Amino acid sequence: MARINIRKMQVNQEGTIASVKVGGELGRRLRDMGLVPGTPIKIQGRAPLFDPVALRVKGFTLTLRNNEADLIDVEVNG
Predict the structure, then answer these.
(1) CA 18 to chain centre
(2) 50 pLDDT tier (thresholds 50, 70, 90)
(3) Domain of 24?
(4) How many folded domains does the chain comprise?
(5) How far is residue 68 from each of residues 7, 21, 42, 54, measured CA to CA in Å?
(6) Spatial contact of 17 and 30, defined as CB atoms under 8 Å apart
(7) Which residues have a Cβ under 8 Å from the Cβ of 3 and sit 6 or more positions away?
(8) Contact between 54 and 69 (Cβ < 8 Å)
(9) DSSP readout, 21-52?
(10) What is the largest CA-CA distance in the chain?
(11) Confidence at 22, pLDDT banded by 50, 70, 90
(12) H helices then E strands: how many in the chain?
């Protein structure tokens, strides 16, 4: 399994969160939204200029700015 950050994932690509590389208030906010290691995600879409990115997490759609997506590593197949 390859490990990349969410920003580099393609639309409809799936993976499992491997790590969230931020602490403090932003880290807490990301964890509160369900972005914790072991959680499966799927990239649902991107805005026309690729920021933000929409992803499916635990049955709901969540959007992240690219600077937030850069902080989350995901294990993907292939």
Answers:
(1) 10
(2) confident
(3) 2-76
(4) 1
(5) 9, 10, 16, 12
(6) no
(7) 18, 73, 74, 75, 76
(8) no
(9) ---HHHHHHHHHTT--TT-EEEEEEE-TTS-S
(10) 33
(11) confident
(12) 2, 6
Domain containing 12 — which CATH number?
2.30.30.90
CA 72: distance to chain centroid? Answer: 6
Are the beta carbons of 41 and 6 closer than 8 angstroms? Answer: yes
Give the pLDDT score at 78.
Answer: 60
Which helix (H) or strand (E) segment holds residue 58: the answer is none
Residue found by looking up tokens 């600077």 in the block: 67
pLDDT class of 45 with cuts at 50, 70, 90: very high
First CA to last CA across the chain, in angstroms? 6
